[in-house]
Amino acid sequence: MTMDRQDDWGDDGELRARLDAYAASRLEPDPAATARTRATIMSDARLGRGAPRTVDDVAGPGLLGRLFRRPALAAMAALLGLAMVAGGTVAAASPGGPLYGARLWVETLTLPSDTTARAAAELDRLQARLDDATAAAANGNGEAVTAALDAYRQTLADAFTVAGSDPTREARLYAELGRHQAVLLAVAARVPATAAGAIQAAIQQAVQRTQDKIDAIMVAPTQPATTPNPGNPNPGNPGQPNPGQPTGTPNPGNPDKTSKPGHPGKAPNPGSAGHTPNPANPNPGKTPPAHGG
Amino acid sequence: MTDVDEVAVERLVAAAKHGDAMAFGRIFDIYHDRVHRYIVARTHNPADAEDLTQLVFLKALEALPRYEARGIPFGGWLFRLARNTVIDHARTHREHADLDAVVERPGNQPEPGAHVVAGEEIEAVGQALAALTDEQREAIELRFFAGLSAREAAAAMGRQEGTVRGLQFRAIAALRRHLGLAAGNDKDRRR
């Protein structure tokens, strides 16, 4: 549990332990639900959308009226809208739809030319693909999950290219990938069997590239890593990355996982990527090369 | 907030106010579970809590450009939004605001046959929480389950910080009585 204020709780360990157990049993969110919520929130955040007025609106479709708050987004949306009209349906631009590729292409047109800004934009695009996959998985649409994850892998390759060898950009990318792995695993638990291969490949690619960097740091201990590991507060232990904490901030969303009773069968929590075992890569040092990137 | 780097959060908030979606994503990652725990504890309905938690973050996204710290920490501001969202929801969905339903909730029970004693203890905690006054219970929910500081909890509840500490103190004493725990060092907890 998050509460560790000794000034308020003194040595009242027994009561705290019982409240911890209660919270772990009754109050923890479902990781898959968290991933769904995050996908929705990030979709709105990228589009500059506002809030619905009631909880009933949350589950409801259609927030397109708020799309046109920003001129740049409106222009992009208009372009995409024209394409969708030509295609005959909004769904055509969804993952797996005939205009999904066009939508991705439009995105690339709006990427900034400045390398740092472009690297950040690529991270946004990665998150968008992840959100596409999460939403598709929630709908049980295996074809859409596959399309979104194929796009994710392509975007990941672009992101690595843009990150280049700049330590800051690389560090941020690796931090993102650490979190993505956990989300992908949560998605994997929901996808139809037809999409299992695609999600495995996406996880593999994210894992492999991250692990390569970690291995490079470990085999050259005499040379301080040129790439900082932002999630690892212990510089003397570079082999224990904590990609869920890219800003050096502890992960307060799940600060006390180790102190809680077990959650049998519970899927990994996207918010605690740094503590999530990686079943896709049980032996990272022997992971085969990634494909498709 | 104990586990939150408030300076880092303020940086994220500043970036998010200028449209940085990634920064808002980070804010979501930091606070989502906390907000969810608070809302589940308030509503006793995980399904509603999921929707309400999403609504809170959508509202935060909309209201963030108007957020100014002015002595109110971001966590307090966010949980004020959460609190108001729960109150609004309770007004229109009275059946979901049944505070006596804290004990028996499907889907959150321990697995059959596993940790029976622990399950009974958890149930006892639920009953002890239900026996608190609403304000005492909310103080525990904000301070313990959501991990807010007394200052943040006070901002969320619209009360003085000392008032929140007093509510917490009395809540702890009541919980200990209900759970049959030996009287602890109250002086320590009152600091």
Structure description:
The complex is a heterodimer of chains A (293) and B (191). Chain A has 293 residues and is mainly α. Chain A has a domain of 174 residues. Chain A contains ten helices and no strands. In chain A, α7 runs parallel beside α9 and α8 runs parallel beside α10. Chain A is globular and about 60 Å long. Chain B has two domains: 99 residues, RNA polymerase sigma factor, region 2, helix turn helix motif (Rna Polymerase Sigma Factor, Chain: A), CATH 1.10.1740; 79 residues, Arc Repressor Mutant, subunit A (Orthogonal Bundle), CATH 1.10.10. Chain B has nine helices and no strands. The relative contact order of chain B is 0.12. The interface between A and B is large, with 67 and 81 residues.
Compute the number of helices of chain A.
Answer: 10
CATH topology-level fold name of the largest domain in chain B: Rna Polymerase Sigma Factor, Chain: A
Shape of chain B: globular
What is the tally of beta strands of chain B? 0
Structural class of chain B: mainly alpha
Radius of gyration of chain A equals 21 Å
- Which ranges of chain A are low-confidence, i.e. pLDDT below 50, for 5 or more consecutive residues? 1-7, 59-70, 220-293
- Give the end-to-end Cα distance of chain B, rounded to a whole number of Å: 17 Å
User: Which two chains have the most extensive interface, and how many residues on each?
Assistant: A-B, 67 and 81 residues
How many discrete domains of chain B? 2
- The overall pLDDT average of chain A reads 62
Rg of chain B is 18 Å
How many β-strand runs of chain A?
A: 0
Strand content of chain B: under 5%
| CATH architecture assignment name of the largest domain in chain B | Orthogonal Bundle
Quaternary assembly: heterodimer
CATH class of the largest domain in chain B: Mainly Alpha
- What coarse outline of chain A follows from CA principal-axis ratios? globular
CATH homologous superfamily assignment of the largest domain in chain B: RNA polymerase sigma factor, region 2, helix turn helix motif
